[in-house]
Design brief:
The structure holds 2 protein chains of 2 kinds. Chain A contains no helices and 12 strands. Chain A is mainly β. In chain A, strands 2, 5, 6, 10, 11 and 12 form a 6-stranded mixed beta sheet that branches. Chain A has a 4-stranded antiparallel beta sheet with strand order 3-9-8-7, with no helix packed on it. A two-stranded antiparallel sheet of chain A has the order 1-4. The radius of gyration of chain A is 14 Å and the shape is globular. Chain A starts with a strand and ends with a strand. Helix content of chain B is 0%, strand content 50%. Classes of the chains: A mainly beta, B mainly beta. At the A-B interface, strand 5, strand 6, strand 10 and strand 11 of A face strand 4, strand 5, strand 9 and strand 10 of B.
Amino acid sequence: AQSVTQLGSHVSVSEGALVLLRCNYSSSVPPYLFWYVQYPNQGLQLLLKYTTGATLVKGINGFEAEFKKSETSFHLTKPSAHMSDAAEYFCAVSITGGGNKLTFGTGTQLKVEL
Amino acid sequence: EPEVTQTPSHQVTQMGQEVILRCVPISNHLYFYWYRQILGQKVEFLVSFYNNEISEKSEIFDDQFSVERPDGSNFTLKIRSTKLEDSAMYFCASSGFPPANYEQYFGPGTRLTVT
């Protein structure tokens, strides 16, 4: 079975500062990894995904994440935070041949301060 | 841009009543999903549906739950006899084929409140 751990349920950064949201996964087979963002009272929007190929993936709104197999990590970064980035971020994993269900982490609430 | 829609946005029901949550997936998608998020908790998988049958379901998806694709556009989740603990946000999602390589697109959710 696969699982996801997100370290830090709340992260606060200053506008313009680096954003780093941590995600570690557990999977017995090669995983597919995703980051979703949820704005208040809205659904989940895909930020980026890793399936195969290049381990550094770029997504929308300037976010990127790097798949590190040796560290079983898929941390989300953005060089410069913007006020509009304030939201909840979920890391998720699915596995090849696993029925495609997404297993989510507990989420990280990102706060951006002036 | 195509999107997944869900109705109603908020449903209040009494314990023991049946509810049907409705979803219209993206039109050319083939895989459909339901997830739920209890307030303050993580998003949990309920069920996936392909080719008019359930392809996978979680332990949460017991006999009180059922899914159906009654026509070519709608995908529904029925809870036969609601319990207080069914109060949650329910998200529908859909994806293309092969689904493992295609992201799941989520709807805005239906907030179910059981009183």
